[in-house]
Design goal:
By secondary structure, the chain is α+β, with helices and mostly antiparallel strands. It has helices at about 5-35, 65-70, 130-135, 240-270, and strands at about 50-60, 75-95, 100-115, 115-120, 125-130, 145-150, 170, 175-180, 190, 200-210, 210-220, 225-230, 235-240.
């Protein structure tokens, strides 16, 4: 007969298996979508066509409060993904993007901010609409964010969360910004009002004017304007490492999820069955 401890352990392993399977399915969907779309310049535009293009970013309007998070030398930031974190005392992780060890972090919220961005390909600028991510992830927005003491609330394990920062459809690593949340006290709400915002930080990855960006999605044509969007059948994919760099990163993450899946199944077999 399985005891209470074994049952509880089994539930944890099952949750890890479900999480890993879901992430592998998302990775597979992204890979299959790119397999069906070659990266080419577009010379004929058809409403509803699947496109995979790489071009230079145009920023028509900067993303909200980007100037407080990013170095001004980075140029105009048209959109960025972000997450709010606080230190996880006693743990360390390796930051592959920065190439160094750093203190552990507890993620509290994540989302994206966007102004007005497009990319040039052929002779026609293509607008980029990130709205599809809102329907898929329900991300936070800084203007509606409420930060509270993490000790006063329950934090779910990482594998049970669904933060936009962890999206497999977005790969940004070129332009990195970070600052204390104190810079944004007039933008976000904090509870209680005397909460020490110096204990909270925000890290962001931006899309900046002039950089090369790879975008996959569905082309929509309205009033002579061309926009790349995501749909139920065609996911929106955005990467500043190009198509090849994105696929390499996707493969690496898929391997990690596969290891987690096999490991959880093996532990169930060892401890419970």
């Amino acid at each position: 007969m399985i005891g209470f401890g074994e049952a509880l352990l089994g539930i944890v392993f099952v949750l890890i298996i479900l999480w890993a399977l879901h992430r592998l399915l998302v990775a597979g969907r992204a890979a299959l979508a790119l397999r069906g779309a070659e990266t080419t310049d577009i010379y004929q535009y058809t409403d509803g066509q699947q496109v995979a293009v790489e071009g230079q970013v145009i920023v028509n309007e900067a993303a909200p409060v980007a100037e407080r998070i990013f170095d001004q030398r980075d140029g105009a930031i048209g959109a960025y993904i972000w997450y709010v974190w606080t230190s996880d005392v006693g743990s360390n992780t390796y930051d592959f993007d920065r190439g160094e060890f750093r203190g552990g972090r507890t993620m509290l919220a994540s989302g994206f901010e966007v102004g007005d961005i497009a990319i040039t390909t052929g002779d026609q600028p293509l607008q980029i609409d990130l709205g599809w991510f809102e329907s898929v992830y329900d991300p936070d927005r800084l203007s509606k964010l409420e930060v509270e003491d993490p000790l006063s609330s329950t934090q779910l394990p990482t594998f049970m969360t669904r933060y936009f920062w962890d999206s497999l459809y977005v790969s940004l690593s070129t332009v990195i910004g970070d600052c204390s949340l104190t810079r944004l006290v007039d933008i976000v709400d904090q509870y209680p009002d005397d909460l020490d915002t110096d204990e909270f930080n925000i890290e962001a990855r931006g899309i900046t004017a002039g950089e090369e960006l790879f975008v996959h999605g569905e082309l929509q044509v309205k009033n002579g304007e061309y926009t790349i969007v995501g749909t139920d059948t065609t996911p929106l994919i955005v990467s500043d490492t190009g198509r090849t760099g994105y696929l390499k990163g996707l493969l690496w993450r898929a391997i990690k999820y596969l290891i987690a899946l096999v490991g959880a199944i093996g532990l169930i077999d060892f401890f419970i069955l």
